Every structure is written in C-alpha cells, then in structure tokens.
Amino acid sequence: MAQAGILIKGGRIVNADRSFDGDVYIEDGIIKQVGKNLIIPDGARTIEAAGKLIIPGGIDPHTNFEMPFMGTTAIDDFYQGTKAALAGGTTTIIDHCIPQKGESLVGAYEKWRGKADSKVCCDYSLHVAITWWSDQVAQEIETISREKGVNSFKMFMAYKDWLMVNDYEFIQACKKVKSQGALVLVHAENGEIIAENQAKLLAAGITGPEGHLQSRPEDVEQEATNRAIMLADQVNCPLCVVNVMGKSSADTITQARKEGKVVFGEALAAGVALEGTNCCSRDWRHAAGFMMSPPLKLDPSTPQYLMKCAANGDIQLIATDHCTFNTEQKEMGRNDFTQIPDGINGVEDRMSVVWEKGVQTGIMDPCRFVAVTSTTAAKIFNMYPQKGVIQAGSDADIVIWNPNATRVISKDTHHQAVDFNIFEGMECHGVPEMVLSRGKVVLEDGELHVTQGAGRYIARDVHAAEVYSRILIRDQIRQPYKILREGDEDARAGDAPIPSAGEPDIATKRGQRNLHASSFSLSGKQVDDHLQHRSSRQGTNPPGGRSNISLT
User: Fold this and answer.
1) DSSP assigned state of 357
2) 464 vs 468: CA distance, rounded Å
3) Residue 24 and residue 11: Cα distance in Å, rounded?
4) What is the pLDDT of residues 138-186, one digit of tens each?
5) Distance between CA atoms of 61 and 151, rounded to whole angstroms?
6) For residue 63, what are the β-bridge partners?
7) DSSP 3-state assignment of 135?
8) DSSP letters spanning 361-387
9) Residue 113: strand, helix, or coil
10) Residue 471: how many CA atoms within 13 Å on its side-chain side?
C-alpha cells in the first residue's frame, strides 16, 4: 500500500560529509528529492523543520535484546528494545546472535530470526558469534555469509569456558571470515587473567561489584586489543574492536591505524559519558546496575578522552552494547560478583548522550555526530547508502533533531523494560522531536506510534568497500618471497634470483629506506638487465648545462 508523500521543509540537513539548508521529500518509504524549491505532488503532508536539524536515523551496531546470559535472559526483548531505540532517534539496530559452544551457527541464526522478526519495530540486522571451531563452523560461515545476509562475525577473548576462543581458533576463524569478504568483531579482554583474578578476589572475601572492576584492570583489555589486532593482521583480516573502554586500548587502535592496519574501534555511550566509581557505590544495587565488560574506568578523564578519539576519527563508532537485567536478575550474584549478569542500557539514550557529551561541549561537530552514530556504521556493515545518509534513493529513516531542547533521563520515563538507567538524572541538550522509520512517523509530540513486527531484516552483502578496498589490494602485494642463492636449483635453471625493481623498498623500523639492503647478486645479474642498452654518447655541454643566453 502506497504511503502519502511527506515534505520536511525549512530545516538544516546534516550528513557526515556536509550540512546545508534544504527540504526533503519522501514517498513510499524512500527519499525522493533533497534540495530547495522542490516540485512535489498535491496532497503531501508538510512538516516544518525551521531551526531544526534533519539527520539520518541512528544506527546502533551493538545490541543484545532478549539474550540468554548466565541462566537468565535480558529483560528488553526485540519489541521493547526497538521501541526504545525509535524513541531515542535510532532507526536501525544490529543485534548479536550468539550460539552456545557446539551449537550450529545456522541453527542459532534461525532461532534469532524467529525471536526478532515478529517483534521488531524498526529495521534490524544480525552479527553471528563464533564461540567454537570445527569444520562444521567453517562451512556454516560460508553458508551464513552467502545466503543469510551476514557480513560480520564476533569472537570473545573473555568469558572463559563459555564464549571465549583461544588464539588458534581466533586465527582459523579470521582466515575463514576473511575468505568470505566479511568482518571480524572482537570483544578484547584476556580471559585467562580475568579468571585468575576472579578466583583470587573471591578467596580474599571480595564478593561485591567492586570485584568485577578489580578483576578486569585496564591492561587486561589493552593486551587483548593488541593481540587481536596483531593476529588479524597476520592473516590480512579486517577487524573491529568493540566495547573500547580504556584509554590505552583506544591508543592501541590509533597506533595500529597509523601503521596502516585495517582495524576499526567502537566506543559505547556509557564509556564516553560515565566513569567507574559507580561500581564502588555502597548501594549494592546501584553498583551492580553499572556492571559491564570491559568495566567503566576509575580514571575520570577517560570518558572525555574516548569522546575526543571519536571526534578526531581514531574511534569510528559509538554504540551501546545494550543488554539489560532488572535488579532482581542482578541479585543472582549478591554473594558472588562473578554471578551478576553484567550489562547496561543505552539504546534509547545514546543519541542524546553523545550530543550532550560531544557536540554540546564543543568536542564534536554535528557532521561528526552523524558519522559516529549512523553513517560510518552503515558503511562498515555495508548498508550505505540505503541507510546512514539523507539523499535521494535512501530509506526515509530520518530524525528531526532539536539541538536546543533538553530532556532529563530517568527510568521512570524511559521506554525500556529495565528498572534501572545508568544515565539517571543526566540532562541532555539535543532531543529527537520527530522520528520517521522508512517514511512512517513513529515519534511525534513525544508520543510513540510503533507497530510490532513492522521492522525488516536487512541482509548485508560481503566485501563492504569501507572494509575491503585495501584488503583486496594487499592480497595481491603481500605475497611471500624467496631469496634464490647461488647453488639453488631454481637459480641454476635460470629463474630470476633477485627481487624485481618494482618491489617496495626494504625499510627500517623508522620507515626510511635501509641503505644496507642491496640488490647485488653473486651471479652478476643486475636489476636493469631486462632493459635495452643504448650506445655510449659523449656529452658536449659545459658543467652546469648549456646556456640560452647569447652575447651580442
């Protein structure tokens, strides 16, 4: 059934690359025209947006709705979670399908689709986790990436004896995922050290949420981040490090990108807004409500540091890792912090929190805000330009954003099912005044108008240009080489024993050419032997060259 046309008029359109004044005309869920003085059919609804921003709907690439975890299930299901997402200006989410060890990846994917399809209020897609390794898993990665529209696979370096993979499994999975043109996501913490620390703390009688914080010091995250980047790079596999919570992990990603490694970083709304002293509260329920992995950091400068990394491009995404548990569920670990289901909210508040802590403080401009909350996710996960941009032909996932309005976040007014909100009492500038999901107005005048099951599953093709443009070229030039030496069979057969002149220079650690490296060969062959030699010619010009000045 065709939808009536909608004209959004008089606002400032903000995309990741530029902002400009203009109007947007929508028809049948698609943006048809963008510009000024648009010619539109009669009968279209006009929405005035003067003084407001017209931005692409947010994309949260990291949610865990109704996820089974530690003997319970996350309280926000796919209906409640996507409803809350729309209330906050997020129009697309990517959730995590997490098979148990030994479980079929395809079977788990079908299970997650069965849970989500009839409930989602907005469009969604899925990452699939790799929690074990076998020939079956390798084959199912092919099936899922080719037939199910999944181009991202997640692995955990933590959660020992449950989700954690070892280095061998990580390498094998990276090789397979890369062969399919997909992306590896990694939760980077050293699971072995965490298990050691947990046992030590419990033996010392530390059972509260502060034990969770102490069992996962920042270098546990940084070590795993560095190791994951190194392992993935060794097999030329693109990598996205999710849940970047520590300054040192952000620095590790920044340095890897400077070295040319294909790695992306994902911070969280919680990480750019809050610090870890909440986990040390004397109120057990309050402290447990802030438990997440990796944990929030005690260093009060960390949130702004991560926001600055996102603002300058060292971190590419700001997501939520929305995985919520009520107080009653958290009570499962009242006497043992390792049994507290760790997870926090964020899907409804992410956009406003990032605006408040980023744009309102002058750290980030509106275009970069759009990039980290929408456009870059669309590009990395190959939904662009269907999602993540205001342009003709794109889905009409649009937010009319009031940068001057304020709201105070509270569990009493949010749309999530969870009975706790980590951003409780935070006043945020920047409010979504109207939200459109594929051309349908779903938020207006503070009221939600959502339909359960109205969202679509978004199948994503492999070989996203944002991820693979460099990888494919490197496959061609990163070939192993053999140095042929006098006496080798190949050398005696007349094959070229030295590298060609077109190969990259051998460089030192500082990047300069290594002058000790030589193309000299004992065989007497030279790098220009393939060139035709010219007869010698004596120069007749004086030193410094011939002058064109004549004396008269």
Assistant:
1) I
2) 6
3) 9
4) 999 999 999 999 999 999 999 999 999 999 999 999 999 999 999 999 9
5) 13
6) 95, 322
7) helix
8) TTSS-HHHHHIIIIIHHHHHTT-TTTS
9) helix
10) 25
Q: Which of 35-39, 115-119, 271-275, 483-487 has the lowest mean pLDDT?
A: 483-487
Instruction: State pLDDT tens for residues 200-246.
Output: 999 999 999 999 999 999 999 999 999 999 999 999 999 999 999 99
Tokens of 229: 């980047």
Measured in degrees and rounded to the nearest 5, phi and psi for residue 390 equal -95, 100
DSSP-assigned letter for residue 192: H
Centroid of chain to Cα 60: 9
* DSSP track, 212-244: HHHHS-HHHHHHHHHHHHHHHHHTT--EEEES-
Collapsed DSSP state (helix, strand, coil) of residue 352 = helix
d(CA 24, CA 8): 5
Closest listed residue to residue 177, CA positions, set 254, 224, 237: 237
Helix 167-179 crosses helix 135-147 at what angle (to 10 degrees)? 30
Give the phi and the psi of residue 244 in degrees, each rounded to 5: -75, 115
CB contact at 8 A, 209 and 290: yes
Percent of the chain with pLDDT over 70: 88
The pTM of this model reads 0.89
- Contact between residue 370 and residue 14 where contact means Cβ atoms under 8 Å apart: yes
For the chain, the helix, strand and coil percentages under 3-state DSSP, each to the nearest 5? 30, 20, 50
Q: Judge whether 52 and 23 are in contact, CB under 8 Å.
A: no
Give the CA count within 13 Å in the CB-facing half-sphere of 301: 3
CB-count burial class (<10 Å; 0-12, 13-18, 19+) for 550 = exposed
Cα 494 from Cα 497, distance rounded (Å): 8
Task: Report which secondary-structure segment, H or E, holds 178.
Answer: helix 167-179
Tens digits of residue pLDDT in 303-362: 999 999 999 999 999 999 999 999 999 999 999 999 999 999 999 999 999 999 999 999
> Position of tokens 């059919």?
41
CA nearest to 252, candidates 231, 221, 276: 221
Q: Give, in order, the Cα–Cα distances in Å from 61 to each of 192, 347, 460.
A: 27, 10, 13
At which residue do the structure tokens 């996102």 appear?
Answer: 310
